[in-house]
Write the structure tokens for this entry.
Amino acid sequence: MKGIILIAALGLTAGAAAAQDRGGPLARADADNDGVITRAEFIEARLAPLRRLDANGDGTVTRAEGEAVGAAMAARGGARPGPRSEQGARPRGEQLPITLAQAEARAAEGFARFDLDGDGRLTAAEREELESRMSAARAGGFGGPDGDR
């Protein structure tokens, strides 16, 4: 279970990012604060926490590096990411080890799913639509950003 850690806790889960747009990770991805999130901004926001976890700078976040961060958080009195969220669901994090290249590819796939009109930008309207879809999915509606399944 320790292999699935920290990534979800650091806001890298695309679904959580879309659902938490107001002040959440997706809003913070708008690096130039123009109200539009580009593909590059989205990917960079997803990779930045991994770069911080990559203690030796080799381009791979290992389980040991992830566990060291968790231990440091616990030592400072912070909550150590556990195997379940407050709602009892398992986190949708990454299995460690993960390379930055793998994480970048996954971020690009996530962006493509969220970019509803395929123009390489996430507008406020798209983010609102995604939030609505994610809320419906959590409430037992359709199958998420890709529509009914």
Observations:
- Residues 94 and 147 are 24 Å apart (CA to CA).
- Residues 14-138 form one domain.
- The longest strand covers residues 37-38.
- The longest helix spans residues 39-53.
